[in-house]
Amino acid sequence: MKNKTSLLSKAYMALIFIFLYAPIGVMMAFSFNSSSSTYQMSGFSDYWWKRMFLDSAAMSSLKNTIILAVATTICSVLLGTLASVGLFYSKNNLYKKAMMTATNIPLMNPEIVTGISMMLLFVFAGTLIHKSEVLGFTTLLIAHVTFCLPYVILNVIPKLRQFDMNLYEAALDLGCKPLKAFFKVVLPEITSGIITGAVMSFTLSLDDFIISYFTNGPSFQTLPIYIFSLTKKRVKPDMFALSTLMFVVILILLVFMNIAQSRAERREAKKI
């Protein structure tokens, strides 16, 4: 009976993985199609990859996306780490609960609601300062930090709760200044949470479309928005190549994040 249950569970998991990843596999295969057909493989060729890399608009959008993702990650990690430490050391439980609830709002709120509301906020702010073209890199950065910040906080705070504060107090008793004690004692213990939050912020910013669609301007276009603009015409395999490139980058980052988490867990297990 147990063997049958095990086989059924494995078959069920296999079907789920096939359902989730078969479309991505088909897309990756057609990105190497020798013809422009999107339903029939004519042969293997890297023509569409070469054409994608020679497309100046696509490369410009890719560069903008990477710049935005890196800037979002840096801002989210700095603000998220500071916010996590402040919330952890706060002695007002009501304040901590209120802030954690506010932190969860961007996670639970539908992206289209967040995107439209932030667009209206930026346009309203632009009218106050008498600026017509307010949407651009700055508004995209603010919007991306808004929905990436909670992921950093929710990854760093559990690490702070696991940390033995007696070590920090011992460092202070031995003459270490608070800021130096934080960097020497506390920061190494929460580094795994910071790395996880940074990788999640980078991947979320890299492939975000809905919020970016409402908060971007004509002067700054990201790769997801560029890919969406291509769907208005006939879909060609160069778009498959772009999508495959994004998928591979995100997959590598997720593997890196899992490796970092497993190493941190092994270190913690050795300490215990």
Note the total helix count.
11
**Percentage beta strand:** under 5%
Estimated radius of gyration: 23 Å
SSE run:
HHHHHHHHHHH
> What's the story with the biggest beta sheet?
none
> How much helical structure, as a percent, in the residues?
over 70%
Gross geometry = globular
| Overall number of strands | 0
Structural classification: mainly alpha
Topology at a glance:
Elements: H1 2-30, H2 47-54, H3 56-89, H4 93-108, H5 111-128, H6 137-162, H7 165-173, H8 178-207, H9 210-215, H10 223-230, H11 237-271
Helix pairs in contact: 1-11, 2-11, 3-6, 3-8, 3-10, 4-6, 6-8, 7-8, 8-11
Question: What do these coordinates show?
Answer:
By secondary structure, the protein is an all-alpha fold. 81% of the residues lie in helices and 0% in strands. Helix 6 packs across helix 8. The two termini are 39 Å apart. The relative contact order is 0.13. The mean pLDDT is 83.
Q: Could you give a short description of this structure?
A:
With 272 residues, the protein is mainly alpha-helical. It has helices spanning 2-30, 47-54, 56-89, 93-108, 111-128, 137-162, 165-173, 178-207, 210-215, 223-230, 237-271. It is globular and about 70 Å long.
